[in-house]
Amino acid sequence: MAHQLIVITGASGTGKTTVSTYLHTHYQVARVITHTTRPMRAGETNGVDYYFETPTSFAQNHYIEHVTYAGYSYGSSYEALDRAFAQSNYASIVLDTAGAISYVQQLDPKPAVLFLTLEQPHVLKQRLLNRGDEPAMITQRLQSDEYRRDLTLPPALAGVATVVTNDKWPEAKRAIDQFFQQLQVKQEAEQGR
Ligand SMILES: Nc1ncnc2c1ncn2[C@@H]1O[C@H](COP(=O)(O)OP(=O)(O)OP(=O)(O)O)[C@@H](O)[C@H]1O
Ligand SMILES: Nc1nc2c(ncn2[C@@H]2O[C@H](COP(=O)(O)O)[C@@H](O)[C@H]2O)c(=O)[nH]1
């Protein structure tokens, strides 16, 4: 069976990591672990949530794409993608919208894309506080160009991404179940050709 990548994108706090964990737990979708220079949050583990890097070690990896987000470097490596697909034919990766656009433009076969959004984006700050993020980090993030940019579906992803509203988890979960089950049907149909 061909490999299928699911790119999960959207603004900070919209629930990208929550969706990636849900797909892993309920559908055994492997997670692509990306690299970052940002400091670890409480509860995060190196090699599980990210590969945490220094600026020097970050520069030594081979990236499909890399970005600066709210002052820190983030990148997705070829090695991490291979590691995920060694575990499962389905893998998900959590990216900012610049990364999602790079993947859609570069990857063959093209990834399936989920864009997460909220009808009430003012609750995002509270979600980041509830998650335990440092208040100073939240302020820096909410003031960043990247955070504001990712609140809106970029034109390059219009017609490509499935938009999921995550104000209420039970509704978001239903939309994600439908998205994943349709993806499985499409994959199986392509296999049968
Ligand atoms: N529908 C929801 N209702 C309330 N809280 C939610 C919902 N979905 C996710 N959360 C919570 O919001 C916080 C942010 O979610 P998550 O870490 O998944 O977001 P993210 O998009 O990955 O953020 P970032 O880009 O900053 O890493 C977490 O504490 C998560 O448990
Ligand atoms: N383009 C990429 N974006 C990435 C990558 N890894 C994570 N991210 C995105 O960065 C922001 C901030 O993440 P956080 O964990 O510090 O909250 C978020 O939008 C992630 O989706 C990557 O390799 N490339």
UniProtKB/TrEMBL annotation:
It comes from Lacticaseibacillus suilingensis. Signal peptide: none annotated. Essential for recycling GMP and indirectly, cGMP. Belongs to the guanylate kinase family. Pfam families: Guanylate_kin (PF00625). It comes from the Bacteria. It catalyses: GMP + ATP = GDP + ADP. This is AAA family ATPase. Residues 3-188 form the Guanylate kinase-like domain. Keywords: Kinase, Transferase.
